[in-house]
Every structure is written in structure tokens, then in C-alpha cells.
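Re: Re: C-alpha cell formats

Sure, here are both.
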Amino acid sequence: MLGVFRRRRLVGALGSIAAGGAIVVSAAGASAGDPPGPRPIGGDAKGQAEPRDTGNRPKPQPGSGKSSTRPSLAVSNNWDGTVDLVDPSTFEQLERINVVPDLQERQTEILTAPDRLAFFLAIRNQIGEGHDQLADDAFTSPDGRFLYVSRPSLADVVAIDMGTEQIVWRVPIEGYRSDHMAISENGQRLLVSDSTEAKVHVIDTQAGQIVDEFESGDSPHENNFSSDGKRIFHASIGMVYTPLDDPIFDTSKGDRYFQIVDARTYEVRKRLDMGQVLEEAGFPDMSAAVRPMTLSPDERFVYFQVSFFHGFIEYDLERDRVRRVVPLPQSEESRNTAREDYLLDSAHHGIAMNPQGTKLCVAGTMSDYAAIVSRKTAAYRIIPVGEKPYWSTESEDGRYCFVSVSGEDRVAVIDFKRREEVASIPVGDHPQRMRTGQVKRAYVR
């Protein structure tokens, strides 16, 4: 019953938002002054992707034994429905993949289902800043053949063959919005947060179907497998799109938890209300919504961001206690910004750690910077990167931190050692999640 209540509360909130939004819907493309409606891919307007002609790309031959892969960084461009594959060493764009080749078909389905249409519009107007969310998170398969993508506005996950750029399977989720994902080391299990159902689905990547799930709080969000694959670190963020952002209305955001889940049975082994934990540690009025997180190499400590806080928290998982609360600078503009105007309640949204466990890389979303922070001393260097940095990912060799600068359609490459930006990678419209992985050499330049 608790899960049903959470779902009704979340559905009611989004439904009210949708009801208060635009009513006129058109299947044709819309200009800035047009009423909201499903927008087809195509054309050269910002926010719309044009599929690439890949007819001359070499395709793998059955039985040829070509299994050689190369490292890649998959950058999800949320508003134009593409994923850029980038070489994480040379920063060269290897390929841009259209991950919504079926968009027209999906839009037709949405237009004929009133409940889906209401959520589609609510996601566009309240979460997507007036844009459809078409590529939130993307992982490559370990063998470099497939790209798995969550598509929030379409409420599904797809597997795309990177050799043909065709959809191999599509898994509609139970609710109305798919969100952050995680993939097991062997690539056989894919986790996807179901924003409106208070749960995380487990997808069998070979069968292309949901095979299990585990319970979460309101608006399930971040997922991470432990290095040994036995645990899942998960967090829910509550209703970040509502305007009741003063701490006195905190409970209106819903149930928000940090969870440790058994990756074999999918039983929740530990559940913490971090708002309560922080208050008991002497830090009142902090949000319980755990946003991006990263773990120390030994996975004893988790470092996470929470809504409205400019900085991060260090939590000792072994002793179950807050070890440090680390504030970081706040720009003058963000200091003069009301909490109601924060981007989905995010003061900071993006944190990564180098493999050596000595430095953190933080995306200061509302202050337009990245920060390299000493894990030992918390000393930091601020690197201005531009409008709305929204995710941080470390390179596998530990040299670089990649920061998606979503407001400028680029990825800033930060050198951990030099603590400065050393390269800029142009990508698609509104880059967010970035994941390192592999791609077959035959599939890219």
C-alpha cells in the first residue's frame, strides 16, 4: 500500500502540472511561439536532431571474428535525442547516433493515450525546461556492440545496435518516465529508475525484458553497482519540480532515501533518510534528496550531493555516520537566486572521483563552475566552465574529469593533476549523463 500511495502522490503532482499546462497539441514541428506538442526529429533548429547517413559505414561480417573494441565516452544529448561517442583520450567525436529513430511512431502512441499525453507535456514543461527529454542515460555493452538508452519522455529503454543504428529491443517501463540507469560489469543486467512508480526495474539485456525490480522512494534517481557487483547504491530525490522549496515545506517533496540493495535478490538491505541523518549530525534544514554520488575506491565512503546545497557530504558506510559536510563557493548570481528558481532543486549536480581516490570533480550547476577538490584536505580549485554544468565522469585512466556543460552543448575536459580545463568537446543539444565504455572499432571512424 505504501508504494501505491507514493505513486498516487507523484502522479497527482505531475498530473496537476500537466493540467495547468498547454492543451493544444500538434504532431507537427513547433517554433518557439507555438503551443507545446510532440516535435518530430529533423530540421536544423536547436533541439532537433537530424539522423546521419551511415550507409557507408563498414558493418561486421557474421563469423568474421572481429571483436576488437576501443574506449569510448557516451554523451547523452537529452534534448535532441542523440548520443555522441567520443574518444576519451584524443577527445575526437567518433560517431553521433540518433537514439529516437522511432520517434514519430512513439508520438502517435502518446497522442492517442490521454494519460501518457498528460505526463509527456508535464515532463516537457516542468522537467525538460520546455523540451522533450529523449536521451537521459546511455551505456555501451561490454562487447561494444550495443548502446542502451533511457528515453524519459517516451517512458522506455532501448537497445541500439551501434553497427546498424537500429533498435534491437524496446522495453516500455511501468510508469511514465525513465531516468538514471546502471549496468552490471558483465552487461547482463541494466537498472533503470521509474520516476513515477517508486521503483527501479531490472532489465535482462539479452532478452530485452524486465525480470525484477526493487522498491524506492518518490522519484527514484541515481543507481550504482558496487565494484564486486554484489550491491547497488541507490537514491530517490522526491518531487523536485514542485514550487514548495522552503525548508518548512520539505515533507511535501515526498519520501527520499539513500539505499543499499542486494544485487542478487534485489532486497533493500539498508535505507537512510539523509535529511534526518544530517540533522542528527548537527546540520538541520538540509534536504534528504541525494543527487549524484561517487564512492571511495574501497567503497567505505560515499560522497554525495543533496538538493539546494552548494557542496557535498562525506558519509562513512562502515560506521554509519556523517564524516564531513564540505561547502563550496556560491556565485553571486546563485546567491541572489530564489530556491524556487533552482534547476530542479539542484545547486550542484555532478560528482566524480579519480581512480586513485585522491581528488573529486564537482559540477557546480547553479554557479557555472567545475571544482577539483582534494579528498584529504577539501582544498579546491574553481574552474569556470559556463552555463549549467550538469554531470561529472572520470576517465578510466584517471587523468581527466569530463563535465557536461549542458547550457553550452559541450563537454569540458578537466585535467585532475593540473586542475584546469585542457580541452572542449562540442556535442549535441543539452548534454547530461556521460558514461565510459567500449565500442567496436568497425562501427566508428
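Second one below.
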Amino acid sequence: MHLDVERQLRTTHEPLSIVVGGEIWDLYVFGVTRVERDWWVQIAVVGPRACTVTVRVDAANGRGAAAHEIIRLVTDWLLEDEASEHAFLEHSVLEARAS
């Protein structure tokens, strides 16, 4: 399935801007799905390059904790990966729970 990210971004709220490695990145949430106690969040990440991530977080501890976890996962990924157009990110605890 191909997603027209530009079209999706026109319908989203204002982005959250973060600084990673001295560069500004805008995070646009364009999809959220809840499955049992997890949130699957689709985010366009726009900075020196444009890419998308799907982040799976545990929603049991509330929105604030989930938001912090999303930002941490995206920040870590941006620091490590300089080329991918899309990534799936999740906390190691969730990976263990799925197996």
C-alpha cells in the first residue's frame, strides 16, 4: 500500500518539532490505532530528509507516558539510521510480549 504522505500532512495538526543531532525534525501524526492495550502510531518525520515511522507503544500508563516513549524511540532511531524511508519502532518489552 502506497501512502501519499503530503496529502496526509495537509489534514494533520501542527507538528511537534524536536532537535536531534543539531537538526530540527517535525513530527506529524497522521494515524493512531488502538489494539488491546497498545497504540500503533503513524508519524511522518520531516527534517533533512522525509520518512515515516510506525511506532507501537503500551498505552496502559496513559497518554503522557506513551508520548514520551514515542519521542524517545523516534529520537534514538534518527540518531542511528540515516537512510531508511520507513521504520517500525517498539519498546523491547513489547517485542518480548509479542513472542
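Helices lie at 5-9, 63-80, 92-98. DSSP finds three helices and five strands in the chain.
- S.
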